[in-house]
Amino acid sequence: MRNEEMKLSEHFSLAELCKTKTKIENVPNEAQVENLKRLCQWLEQLRRRWNNLYGEGDDPIIINSGFRSPEVNKAVGGVSTSNHLTGCAVDIRCIGMEQALRYAAILLDISDLNHEDYDELLIEQKGRVIWIHFAVKLTGNRRRTNFKR
Q1: Which of the listed residues 20, 26, 39, 134 has the most CB atoms within 10 Å of its CB?
Q2: Distance between CA 105 and CA 108 in Å, rounded?
Q3: Helices 30-53 and 96-114, interaxial angle, to 10°?
Q4: Is the pTM of this model over 0.70?
């Protein structure tokens, strides 16, 4: 199976979590793919709960950015310590602040109910564009939560 066809979970593919608008190659190694799979388990729960509570029954969770190679990360202005570099982070597109807050609340509930920590849960905004930056590492998760403009 080619990488672009590889499913990381029921609703998320490797291609989706590695897409980039840069023309730079962006291919994760095996450890980074495993990190993406772990992250996708959270995304599946978010998708299921969102659709049960607020969605139209089958609303997708849209990923703006997932894994980034060092070259891609530099090209998009990412920090050198970004969780995107290890496949431990995603930026989730939100349609407005209300959806961002609801996504964040669901992710907090998932963490509490499953007794699993996350590393970062940030609501970020640039102009009118709003997204959730969400990261989960294998160990050393900090439960860092913030709103960044």
Answers
A1: 39
A2: 5
A3: 110
A4: yes
Written as tens digits, the pLDDT of the chain (149 aa) is: 455 579 999 999 999 999 999 999 999 999 999 999 999 999 999 999 999 998 788 899 999 999 999 999 999 999 999 999 999 999 999 999 999 999 999 999 999 999 999 999 999 999 999 999 999 999 999 999 999 87
DSSP-based helix, strand, coil % in the chain, nearest 5: 40, 20, 40
Locate the DSSP E strands across 57-119: 63-65, 89-94
Cα(44)–Cα(27) distance, integer angstroms: 22
Distance of CA 132 to the CA centre of its chain: 8
Q: Nearest to residue 145, comparing CAs of 137, 128, 130, 133?
A: 133
Angle CA 99–116–130, to nearest 5: 20
Amino acid found at 37: K
